[in-house]
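Aim 2 progress. For Carboxysome Shell Carbonic Anhydrase catalytic domain-containing protein, the working sequence is reproduced below.
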Amino acid sequence: MYTNVTRLPIEKRIDWLFNLADRHGATFRSPDAWLARERYLAEHPTAIAVLKCMDGRINLSVMTNTPAGILMPFRNLGGAFDLGWPHLGEVLAHHVQGWIRSGRRVLFLVTYHYSKGDPHRGCAGFNYDTEAAFAHTKVIRRQMEQIFGLGHTTIYPLICGIETDEDTIIVHGSTGEKLDLSQLTPDESETLEPRLAALLPDMPPQMRADLLPLLLGNLENIARVREQARRHERQLEIEHREWMICVGRGFDFLHTPNQALIIGPYSPNLDVPIGKAGGIIQSNMRGGRIPDDGFLLLASVPYMEIGMDRARAELKSIFLARFAAEVLRNEFPALAEKMFVRTAVLDWHSRTLETVNDTLPESDRSQIAASF
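Predicted structure tokens for this construct:
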């Protein structure tokens, strides 16, 4: 599937993308999917959020065989976040307060990623320096402890590494030890519960019980990935072949690796990850990993309610598309000539992606920026 998508003409790739979004939304809204989510949350009430890189390979739902809509993703270049960023702080506070008021604890998976086979398949956001990426996750954890407290009884920041060659999760313990799931076999799945208890003694038992299914799912996924590698079907999934830049939020429908570079709208210096993403797209074209006939810039903003909330989401999405396009035109003028721009909003409750048209005059740019 990946080869066919990557090699299609750009117009066909864009059609494929929106068809994928439609199929994902239809599946998400189906009675079976709704019941699966409700049953999962009843059995595992801990809310789980994931701070991760914009790299399209980092998809924890797929890596852990978790139903779509359970894990709340936050993406940025290299998984680099600063909880002092105003917009990020507002979004996190909104979600945390909602979860806590409903009586749920919150587990934050603070992630970094790398490749054991080739450092240059690792994290471009940290210049392939895994130690630097890991060090940054510890900074994020300390910031969370400053905001939510050191007790970890309600909010728990857990550092996890992700090895992308085999989609392996590495859990870092509170005492400096770690659990690398690539070192376990499916037959050792029954040992995971006591291993977690020893590794994370300060984690509430219910939270450990709700983390366990993710790790069991990862063991199953690792076995599947290794079988793909044995059949020589894994190469495309570990190389950068991204052909689109997604800016904003609401890209959970992208469950296929290495299609998109996803940039959350959190950093005050949003031009930095956009420029980095443009460089990756240009490198992919020059390296022949994707066709050079075009790439997609897609902006998306979710909304919770119709009316004013949706209208504001439209303005934010239009701003993000204009801002990102301007950055790319300034930094990569030749590449920008091959840019296709689409703007959308996402109905968060139904996961319906809705395209919108940028019909506002250029003079309104500053007002849109102010609303963002």
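The radius of gyration is 20 Å. This observation will guide construct design in the next reporting period.
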